[in-house]
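Problem: given the chain below (414 residues), write out its structure.
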Amino acid sequence: MFKEDVSLFIALKYLKTKRKGFLSFVSSMAFSCIALGVAVLIIVTSVMNGFERELKDRILNIIPHAEIIGLNPILNWEKIQTKAEENTSVIGVAPFIETQVLIGSPREVFGSNLIGIEPDLESRVSVVSDFMIEGTFESLKKNTNNIILGEVLARKLGLDLGDKVSLMLPDTKPSFAGYFPRISNFQVSGIFRVGSSDLDESIAYINISKAAKLLSLGEKVHGLRLKFSNLFEANYLSWEVLMEVESVSNDMLTVQDWTYSYGPLFEAIMQERVLIGLLLSLIILVAAFNIISMLVMMINEKKSQLAIFKTIGMSKQEIRNIFLYLGMMISLIGTIIGTFFGLLITLFLSTPFMESLMSFLMRGSYFINYFPTDIRLSWISLIIIGTLTITVSVCLYPAFLASKIIPAEVLRNE
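Solution.
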């Protein structure tokens, strides 16, 4: 009787046999399709994971996870802050004042969202201070006329660190001649760049005390920003916090979380990642069909050899194992090659050269003008296991056909 390693030895011989013609073409396509499918899946999923990470790090950690907003300016906001911080899911609370202003320089005038903040508290709910390219976030000290601008807005206004700007907003107290704009001068003490034109072009920060003075709010604020330990639970956690703080406030309050403005974008990236992964998996299915075709043609070519093997004592199981081993080796080699090149290309996409090249080609077109990559072991493992499972399982049918060969009928026709 033959030992189990004989089947493996024969499979290795078949694998290393130099064939010509259509069978060689099909076997080459089987290797190539597996390698190509695995490589493309690794590259695309890593890039999509990178976009997800960048969206979370650059956008969803810049904007508040949620905001408690007063229908009218809130007076005793410190009580609301204290109550909100009692919730174990809340890791940061910061008051804010927000209004629309015109920001003017000697060259241009542009509209912007002016946000009054307390720098120390704002750092608990936003990481905008991590994206400062000039100046510091802490320069927004109380009773100072300092302002921090987004890079795009600063460049459009032709401003740099230390330059003067004018903030223009309507006076809420009309005179006998009507409403006139109030103008206040500020000095640029910082410039930030997040990478999103929406934020870099439309936001300016000043100290909350100065914002309250500009709007004649006194000790009042427009609302409080919240940051949760899990931003994906912000939708229901924000309402939970709202119900808790209403017990200590007589103000009419409402709440709004990040899904209102950026939820559709985040969901689109998640859905596209899954959809693209499923579509690219078709390459693996093509490779699986190529393996079936190759094995069936090889069985037809090697019928006489298989008949002789059976005649000298090989069992059906050992015959099946020959083609199972052969399919496994093709699948494993193709997967290893695909994984190697997939990881290699993914790492190349994250090099400074590629980032500079993509930044040049896509400058001003997208909020992320490079290929962000995030190689996750869980995704790589899933791709490898899925590929091996599909490509190995399709070998069962050809192996079953090989084991059904009847030696007498095959050798009679030789």
